[in-house]
Design brief:
The complex is a heterodimer of chains A (about 300) and B (about 375). Chain A contains eleven helices and two strands. Chain A has about 300 residues and is mainly alpha-helical. Chain A has one domain (about 5-280): ABC transporter involved in vitamin B12 uptake, BtuC, CATH 1.10.3470. A two-stranded antiparallel ribbon of chain A has the order 1-2. Chain B is of the alpha/beta class and about 375 residues long. Chain B is about 45% helix and about 15% strand. Chain B contains twelve helices and 14 strands. In chain B, β11 (about 345) and β12 (about 350) form a beta hairpin. In chain B, α2 runs parallel beside α11, α8 (about 230-240) runs parallel beside α9 and α11 (about 305-325) packs across α12 (about 330-340). The chains are: A mainly alpha (about 300), B alpha/beta (about 375). The interface between A and B is large, with 48 and 38 residues.
């Protein structure tokens, strides 16, 4: 393998990995506050892409993205307020089934609004054939946007969770819900906030990846499965671990193409997931004690 | 009147009433993937049929009988297609069925129509649908092998001998890859790289890097449905590789060109003449039918006409011509379809026979390329 080919694979892997990681972070935020896996996470990504595409002619690219993120956050909050908050007996399994239902509902609604065809945002810099050369390998500038967005998101999130009082409240809620309630934290609002946050992150991801992957009403599901794999791989609830696991999976997928047929790419992801579940059920980077909440 | 007589007389009423109702309308069924992964096929097909039936009825119907169209949305799911096929044949008692949209579904329902003796005119491309011939099964899209031969002919003209093949893991992709592999030796083409990718793949830059690293590759053929068709093009051009890129006839929708943007420039693919209708000579046999279909479709629906909707258009005009000829008896209808000759449709000029249930030949395809975001005929 030449150095050029190596770097080309590496960047392809980083691209896949960053996309998976962003989706996985969304899973983790909601998991932390509620203990559930929100299977509508992929739909947030799709909505972000679709809304920004619709708003593009009116607002221009930067504002369309901001508006798409805000609208998706409101949508996430509404989902929680309307369907999750008022559950009399909020069992984990029940809530998971509800999120599956909501994901189907959102997908069908998107089909009616935007139709069955694929759309995409324009490339943020240059166009479809622009590429930058890094160490002999050529990659699209959009890849740098995806990697950059993923990096910024992780940094901002960790600052938010470590230093702001709302962030600390959310962490308290994640650590021990009963204790958090006793300390006067409104845990219900924290759950709503976590839905808004992960909807916003999903939407932003949907916007930055749209030029590369295109957006269609049904492409949230595929992303959700990969994101879920990565979240489990890294250890549920740990956003930093999700980035590590995402990049790892992406890079393995990219390099696997060199040795085994491309058709087996998804089999690799699933085999890896099974292997991890057998050997380290708490994830690659998770601590043994954390385990799975209530599962 | 006691309950029993009431029931009996009601039943008698129903039995006597149904033939009268059936005589008033001609029931045509359609099984189309209006939603789901193949909705880019089923959507335009369903809209085309609705438009055509409304036109026929406004003009007084066929033999002064109104046409009743029953569209079932299979979502490209073969199991649903099977149950809809039975429902249309046994409950609705349709005279014929148009669809399904995909090859996989068509192969699943083929036997049902054969046994029920009801004509099926498929809108799916795979050659196996009509080869070997099943008595009651027809199709309007051009054969995959025509597309492959047309591509290889163009490669010979361009002096290309060694190629890489990429295909999606759908029925369409697999069938295309088989045809590409089977026909290559006789056309003097050697496939030096072949890869199959998942239909939901988001980015194919890794596999593009792999085939680019093989210095023997003179051209790339990609055989898949959206969105991978656009992604392959983008990844190849981003890698700074200006290799000739060929796509299948599945690329025939200007939306994919829009999605691929600048990367779509120069893509070469075979397609029906619908895409270049405005550039056809006025005396071309398909000119009139193509112009009228495109104008009507674009007037009724706020989107560009595609070759896929055209397949449903062809299926409908074939069926309509046969009903006008033979009435609504299913066996007579089947014979009438086999007897159709020289019927100009959107996909080509149809001439069916007892052993050709597609009715088209290799000339129904034209090699097309993308220039400045538009489809133009490939200059030889």
């Amino acid at each position: 393998m030449t150095l050029e080919l190596f770097i080309q694979y590496l960047f392809a892997g980083i691209t896949y990995g960053s996309i998976y990681a962003i989706v996985a972070i969304g899973f983790n935020i909601i998991y932390n506050t509620t203990g559930i896996i929100n299977f509508a996470q992929g739909e947030f990504v799709m909505l972000g892409g679709m809304i920004s595409i619709s708003l593009l002619p009116v607002l221009g690219l930067p504002l369309a993205i901001v508006a798409a993120v805000v609208i998706t956050m409101i949508f996430g909050a509404l989902l929680e307020i309307c369907f999750i908050r008022w559950l009399v007996n909020p069992g984990v399994l029940r809530m998971i089934i509800i999120t599956i239902g909501l994901s189907i509902l959102t997908r069908e609604a998107a089909l009616h609004i935007w139709g069955e065809s694929i759309h995409s945002l324009p490339y943020f810099v240059g166009n479809e054939i622009t590429s930058v050369t890094i160490a002999g390998a050529r990659i699209s500038p959009q890849v740098l946007w995806v990697v950059g967005a993923c990096g910024c998101m992780v940094i901002i999130l960790s600052i938010f969770f470590q230093t702001t009082s709302v962030g600390r409240d959310m962490r308290a809620c994640a650590a021990n819900r009963t204790a958090a309630t006793l300390c006067g934290i409104n845990t219900r609002n924290m759950v709503t906030l976590s839905f808004m946050l992960s909807a916003g992150i999903g939407a932003l991801a949907g916007c930055v990846v749209s030029p590369i992957t295109s957006t269609a009403y049904d492409n949230g599901t595929g992303l959700a499965i990969k994101g879920f794999t990565v979240a489990i791989l890294g250890g549920l609830g740990n956003s930093m671990a999700a980035v590590g696991a995402g990049l790892l999976l992406g890079i393995i997928e990219a390099f696997s193409v060199h040795i085994i047929p491309l058709a087996f790419q998804d089999a690799i992801a699933i085999s890896l997931l099974l292997l991890i579940l057998f050997i380290r059920p708490h994830g690659l980077f998770g601590s043994r004690s954390a385990g799975l909440k209530e599962f | 009147m006691n309950i029993r007589t009431l029931v009996v007389s009601l039943a008698a009423l129903c039995i006597s009433a149904s033939p009268v109702m059936a005589a008033d309308t001609i029931k045509i069924g359609a099984i189309l993937a209006v939603t789901g992964p193949a909705s880019f096929l089923g959507g335009p097909e369903a809209r085309t049929l609705e438009m055509l039936v409304a036109e026929t009825n406004a003009a007084g119907g066929i033999d002064s009988k109104q046409v009743e169209l029953i569209i079932k949305d299979s979502g490209a799911n073969p199991e649903k297609a099977i149950s809809f096929a039975k429902q249309l044949i046994e409950e609705e008692r349709v005279v014929a069925v148009i669809g399904p949209s995909t090859s996989g579904e068509t192969m699943k329902v083929k036997k049902i129509f054969e046994q029920a003796g009801t004509p099926l005119i498929s809108c799916a491309a795979a050659e196996v649908i009509v080869n070997p011939v099943a008595r009651y099964v027809f199709k309007t899209p051009q054969n995959d092998s025509f597309a492959v031969r047309k591509i290889y002919q163009t490669m010979q003209d361009m002096g290309i001998a060694k190629i890489a093949v990429l295909a999606g893991n759908t029925g369409f992709g697999k069938a295309g890859k088989e045809q590409l592999t089977a026909i290559a030796p006789e056309m003097g083409i050697e496939i030096v790289e072949a890869e199959v990718y998942d239909k939901d793949a988001n980015d194919l830059s890794a596999v593009v890097a792999k085939i680019k690293a093989n210095p023997d590759v003179q051209a790339v053929v990609n055989w898949s449905i959206v969105p991978a068709q656009a992604i392959v093009a983008k990844n190849i051009r981003q890698a700074g590789w200006d290799v000739p890129l060929f796509q299948s006839h599945g690329f025939g929708n200007i939306k994919y060109v829009e999605t691929a943007g600048a990367a779509a420039e120069g893509i070469i693919f075979p397609a029906g003449r619908l895409l270049i209708a405005d550039q056809l000579a006025d005396d071309h046999p398909q000119k009139a039918v193509l112009t009228s279909y495109i104008t009507e479709y674009e007037k009724n629906f706020d989107e560009q006409a595609s070759t896929f909707g055209g397949h449903a258009y062809d299926a409908y005009i074939v069926l309509k011509a046969a009903i006008e000829e033979a009435g609504t008896d299913r066996a007579a209808l089947r014979d009438a379809i086999e007897g159709i000759s020289g019927l100009a449709g959107t996909g080509g000029v149809f001439t069916f026979s007892a052993d050709d249930h597609n009715g088209l030949d290799i000339d129904s395809f034209e090699m097309i390329t993308v220039k400045a975001g538009k489809f133009v005929p490939l200059a030889q």
